[in-house]
Amino acid sequence: MTIYPVVMPVSGDVQRLSGREKVEALSDCARQALQLSADKSGVVLGELRKDGDDVPLPFGEYHWSVSHKPKYVAAVVGRGRMGIDVEEIEPRKDRIYDYVASAEEWEIFGGKSWDTLYHCWTAKEAVVKSAGVGLAGLKSCRVQDVQDAGVSLSYEGRPYRVAQIRHDGHIVSVLSNDHVVEWVLLEDPATSESGLPLTQVT
Questions:
Q1: CB within 8 A of 153, min separation 6: which ones?
Q2: Residues whose CB falls within 8 Å of the CB of residue 128, separated by 6 or more in sequence, listed in order
Q3: What is the pLDDT of residue 189?
Q4: Digit-coded pLDDT (tens) for 56-101
Q5: What is the dihedral of CA 28, 31, 36, 41, to 10 degrees?
Q6: Which of 86, 94, 143, 152 makes the best surface tag, with the fewest CB within 10 Å?
Q7: Whether the Cβ atoms of residue 5 and residue 172 lie closer than 8 Å to each other
Q8: Do 161 and 150 meet the contact criterion of CB atoms below 8 Å apart?
Q9: Quick one: how many helices (H) and strands (E) in the chain?
Q10: pLDDT tens digits, 157-171
Q11: How far apart are CA 82 and CA 75, in angstroms?
Q12: Could you give the CA distance from residue 77 to residue 1 in angstroms, rounded to a whole number?
């Protein structure tokens, strides 16, 4: 099956909000991106519910995942467990490297840099989201190999494959496993499906 992860910019109006109002607006943006992913897949979205741990619940055979940051949101729907994460590449405190991965994993990435940090972080986040666990699962998720367009990982003895893309200073990762991934990058958050200016990357 082909999945269509959608990456959508957040409008300036939403970026200027703060507090709960901003969180709710970003969540709405992510749901819009999810609707576009469903439309591209020919899937009718069911009721979007979460369990007591805030983990998205599937509707029928379809699973969904969303991620939002101040400038971009990302979303995907498909058969089987889904996980997606978007992060802006920006410096943080150096101790985050040890939190995200081991020395052996950084060797697989070719060393530590802010770029490799976000490649690693978002890949692991996509996996643990698909497994229904939070950031506490990062340490149990291990990088096995790194390729041009993605990362192979293991979590609780199972192999996972994550596809990645770099877009406008952000890294986006989506659990791919056996799916074909066709990225959908929106250029304007204000457009509708009827006149959608998209860049589709395979």
A1: 123, 124, 127, 141, 142, 143, 144, 159, 160, 161, 162
A2: 83, 134, 135, 137, 138, 141, 155
A3: 57
A4: 999 999 999 999 999 999 999 999 999 999 999 999 999 999 999 9
A5: 180
A6: 94
A7: yes
A8: yes
A9: 5, 12
A10: 999 999 999 999 999
A11: 10
A12: 11
Give the CA distances from residue 46 to residues 38, 61, 63, 77, in Å, rounded to whole numbers and listed in that order.
10, 11, 10, 11
Query: Hey, what amino acid is at 86?
Result: V
Radius of gyration of the chain (CA): 16
CA 19 to chain CA mean position, Å: 23
Helix (H) or strand (E) holding 56: none
Q: Which of these CATH numbers, 3.90.470.20, 3.30.470.20, 3.30.70.600, 3.40.190.10, describes 2-201?
A: 3.90.470.20
Domain range annotation of the chain: 2-201
**Count of C-beta atoms within a 10 Å radius of residue 118:** 26
**Closest by Cα among 73, 82, 76 to 25:** 73
Distances (CA, A) of 28 to 73, 108, 125, 161, 199: 10, 37, 21, 28, 22
Q: Which residues contact 141 (CB under 8 A, 6 or more apart)?
A: 124, 127, 128, 153, 154, 155
Residues written for the chain: 202
